[in-house]
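User: I need a structural model of Phosphoglycolate phosphatase from Polynucleobacter aenigmaticus for a docking pre-check later this week. Nothing fancy, just the predicted structure tokens so I can convert them on my end. Input:
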Amino acid sequence: MSSGLASPYKGVFFDLDGTLADTAPDLVAATNQLLIARNLAPKQYAVLRPCASAGARGLIGGAFGIDPEHPDFISLRDEFFKNYEKALYINSVLFEGMDHVLKQLDDAKLPWGIVTNKSERFTNPLTDLMGLRQRAASTVSGDTTPYSKPHPEPILHAARVANIDPSRSLYVGDDIRDIVAGKAAGMKTIAAAYGYCGCEEPPEAWGADYLVRHPKELLEIIFPQ
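Assistant: Understood. Predicted structure tokens for Phosphoglycolate phosphatase:
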């Protein structure tokens, strides 16, 4: 049965980490394991949380102060992946209010999808365990196509799989790359300021069409009165 809610949009697509789900607790734990294994003090959660939007690159950079060109980066990244793969759904949860948002979308029969830079190796088991992939019209990871965000192709691919016109869709993300990719795909964009948001420009400077500070505010944009 339809909820009676009407939307000018034909679909809504979400980033995963920091937008749909608060996965930082498990990502930070996997990062701190790297430090502990080297007899280094673990970083405070509040220090590493903003780095989670940039994945392994951001978290390893935040923990060790190195970039991907550093000779130790690849080995640290591979070890991080092993740590995370073993414990990717311990303390990860949907953001408060997000379950209600998704339920409203489902009730209104408005398709929604996931577009993340996380690799399928982690995206698929995590979204299965969280009960998301079974409900999503499409789930696209960072290695599903030859490109990752900020390139628009992953978002365009998600729209094709869901059979949704990108120009009549929304893309929601907590990183400037999400907004760049969403705009390049022809979608209206929403900056999720409640998410991790990186360590660079604030979300107000990303040029998104909309900005929300809590998931519940998404409903006002998706279903305007």
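Before docking, keep this in mind: The chain has a mean pLDDT of 96.
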